[in-house]
Design brief:
Largest sheet of chain B: none
Helix content of chain A: 25-40%
Number of strands of chain A: 13
Number of strands of chain B: 0
Radius of gyration of chain B: 22 Å
Order of helices and strands of chain A: EEEHEHEHHHEHEHEEHEHEEHEHH
Strand order of the largest sheet of chain A: 5-6-7-3-8-9
Low-confidence stretches of chain B: 1-17, 245-253
CATH superfamily of the largest domain in chain A: P-loop containing nucleotide triphosphate hydrolases
Number of domains of chain B: 1
Number of helices of chain B: 14
Strand content of chain A: 15-25%
Distance between the termini of chain B: 36 Å
CATH topology of the largest domain in chain A: Rossmann fold
CATH architecture of the largest domain in chain A: 3-Layer(aba) Sandwich
Oligomer: heterodimer
Mean pLDDT of chain A: 87
Number of domains of chain A: 2
Bound molecules: adenosine-5'-triphosphate, magnesium ion
CATH class of the largest domain in chain A: Alpha Beta
Order of helices and strands of chain B: HHHHHHHHHHHHHH
Structural class of chain B: mainly alpha
Mean pLDDT of chain B: 87
Radius of gyration of chain A: 24 Å
Largest sheet of chain A: 6 strands, mixed
Number of helices of chain A: 12
Shape of chain B: globular
Low-confidence stretches of chain A: 302-324
Largest interface: A-B, 60 and 49 residues
Structural class of chain A: alpha/beta
Strand content of chain B: under 5%
């Protein structure tokens, strides 16, 4: 259980985390989402007692992290940057961590096996690939078999098997009743892994709750229609206050109307439908619309792409692909 | 386990046996010892320290013949004692050990390791205390080794001038003990500075400047207050309890009483460490 109350962190002028309050419940996987610079890593560092909150408090299992008698048994953390000396071997690194808590070296070997690092445990960490580094980070987070896990972008750099392994691992841990709090930028991954979501932008909470609820709260279910007479159908529907977008010529995504009504309407107008398909929004779509105002570091490429989509939508509203 | 496990990890069920974890200061010290000894650079630095100490004392011992032959340096030779020749290499050895002292802390910041360290020991100050303990012991061992090696290596050369340190004499042990004490203080000073500055380049620059550069440069300035300042720099202050040849830097500090010299050197070790501990507690990792 992680509880934050009015948690705030300022770095000079910059407010990285802006008075957020939340509770991360045990027994479930909570995904932590937000654009670059939203304050995810900062929040996690404050939970771990590494950065001192400017104001507000955060506790793990009832008290500030630093006040636990055996901190590593309470929280295991994988933080974003490699928190490892590159000159040391993976095994030595884990041993230094284990020694502080008098954890037997048999446990060090156990987490090495568990994370698939056995073959490289004696090699210097400096030569590790990104994924190997992540595995080592997860190994050290698991070292004391903690009740709470905090993983900052754990699947970043992992191969597909590794991604799947992390997914199953966090599932197992949550099912055992532990608290799992992880951040990621991979929405499809998050949709498969998380039960709960905490979405932040510019240091503030944008949305929180069970995954499906968060998705439903932003984007109503849509209906996808494919028809050669898309333009006519769009004109018909527009009158009823339906939101229409066209991802490609001849295809319409409709919001604010259900599939049955679209079918009836098209039939009455004599418009043949080649496809009629109710579609619930994906987490990615929900995330995009949740965070569109909170993105601080927007890439130019993204701007270009969205402009292109808009123009595609305009042209297809009047489907005259042939005339040009 | 074979490498296949890397390619296709199976979801390992969590070992249900509860992992016994019980943090103690002894554990933190063991952790720091593991850290120190598991880096190749540590061994390089420790070896360099011993070699510098032995090399310098050998060079001094080797030049005794020519000093004796030259009337202008004969007086100097007369003032030289065996223990001072044997431990004379510490002025270079301390530079290597100070670099190690700084890196013990700044290396954690430059690599990000500090976050793992402070996550494991969130009360923080025990980390610095453990580092200081481990560093002090390692330095004492290396300094002792350096002196022992110097003693053995220079023995044939010193014998010609009847300068072989007499192990039965208290003065011999005063100089040897003082040298070990000074080396430990230099290492801890650099550790304290490293904790305060967090940057390797900054900490090494400051530590080496205070230890060697400042006394070497300021000694040429004859203003009264500058001379006083120089007396209180670590190396000259060590002269108060180490003695040393007439033209050695240590000799500048003859102004201080031996006990005052010990206190000044100890202050260089302790004050930055305390300041570092306060900063470590307060700052973000
Ligand atoms: N030590 C620091 N000093 C100054 N500013 C910082 C520091 N750490 C973070 N920030 C700033 O705080 C903000 C939040 O950063 P943070 O790393 O928490 O974001 P994030 O959500 O983890 O982003 P990402 O998805 O890119 O990992 C950013 O604007 C960052 O520049
Ligand atoms: Mg981050």
């Amino acid at each position: 259980m992680i509880e934050a109350h009015e948690l705030t962190k300022r770095y000079g002028e910059k407010t990285a985390v802006d008075g957020i309050s939340f509770t991360i419940a045990p027994g479930s996987v909570t995904g932590f989402l937000g654009p670059n610079g939203a304050g995810k890593s900062t929040t996690m560092r404050m939970i771990m007692g590494l950065d001192r909150p400017t104001s507000g408090t955060v506790t793990v299992n009832g008290r500030p992290y630093a006040e636990h008698r055996s901190p590593l048994s309470e929280v295991g953390a994988l933080l974003d940057a490699k928190a490892v000396h590159p000159g040391r071997s993976a095994r030595s690194h884990l041993r230094t961590m284990a020694a502080t808590h008098n954890i037997p070296s048999s446990r060090v070997d156990e987490v090495i096996e568990m994370t698939g690092l056995a073959a490289v445990a004696g090699k210097r960490v400096g030569g590790f690939s990104l994924g190997m580094g992540q595995r080592l980070g997860i190994a050290s987070a698991m070292l004391a078999d903690p009740r709470t896990l905090i993983l900052d972008e754990p699947v970043n750099g992992l191969d597909p098997e590794g991604v799947q392994w992390v997914r199953r691992l966090v599932r197992t841990l949550a099912d055992e009743g532990r608290t799992v709090f992880l951040s990621s930028h991979l929405m499809s991954e998050m949709a498969q892994t998380a039960d709960q979501l905490l979405v932040i932008g510019r240091g503030r909470i944008i949305a929180a709750g069970p995954v499906q609820e968060v998705i439903d709260s932003v984007s109503a279910a849509a209906v996808r229609v494919r028809t050669p007479r898309a333009g006519e159908l769009a004109d018909l529907l527009q009158a009823d206050g339906v939101t229409i977008s066209s991802p490609e010529p001849g295809t319409l995504d409709l919001r604010g109307i259900d599939a049955a009504d679209v079918g009836e309407l098209a039939c009455a107008a004599g418009i043949a439908l080649h496809e009629l398909c109710p579609r619930s929004a994906t987490l990615e779509e929900a995330y995009m619309s949740l965070t569109q105002d909170a993105v601080e570091y927007r890439s130019d490429l993204a701007a270009t792409t969205s402009a292109a989509t808009t123009s595609a939508a305009t042209t297809s509203a009047v489907p005259e692909e042939g005339s040009r | 386990m074979s490498t296949t496990a890397v390619a296709a990890p199976v979801p390992t069920p969590l070992p249900r046996a509860v992992v016994a974890a019980r943090p103690t200061f002894g554990g933190v010290v063991r952790g720091e010892l593991t850290k120190l000894l598991s880096l190749r650079s540590t061994w390089w630095t420790l070896a360099t320290t011993v070699l510098l100490m032995t090399g310098v004392s050998l060079a001094v011992a080797g030049s005794l013949d020519s000093m004796a032959a030259d009337p202008s340096t004969a007086a100097e030779l007369a003032a030289l004692t065996g223990p001072v020749v044997v431990s004379g290499g510490f002025q270079l050895g301390m530079l290597a050990i100070a670099v190690l002292g700084a890196l013990v802390m700044t290396g954690e910041y430059s690599t990000g390791m500090i976050r793992s360290t402070l996550a494991a020991v969130p009360t923080r100050v025990p980390v610095l205390a453990a580092k200081a303990t481990v560093l002090a012991v390692a330095t004492a061992v290396v300094a002792t080794l350096g002196i022992a090696l110097s003693y053995l290596a220079t023995m044939p050369l010193l014998a010609d001038h009847d300068l072989v340190p007499r192990l039965a004499e208290a003065d011999t042990w005063r100089v040897f003990g003082g040298t070990v004490f000074f080396m430990v203080a230099a290492a801890l000073f650099a550790l304290g500075v490293g904790t305060l500055l967090r940057s390797s380049a900054g900490a090494i620059t400051v530590a080496l400047s205070v230890l060697l550069l400042l006394p070497t440069l300021l000694v040429f300035i004859t203003l009264d207050w500058v001379e006083t300042v120089v007396d209180y720099l670590p190396l000259p202050a060590s002269g108060a309890f180490l003695g040393g040849g007439e033209d050695s830097l240590s000799a500048v500090g003859d102004e201080l009483a031996p006990s005052a010299g010990v206190l000044v050197v100890a202050a260089y070790a302790i004050v930055p460490l305390i300041a570092g501990a306060l900063a470590l507690r307060r700052r973000d990792a």
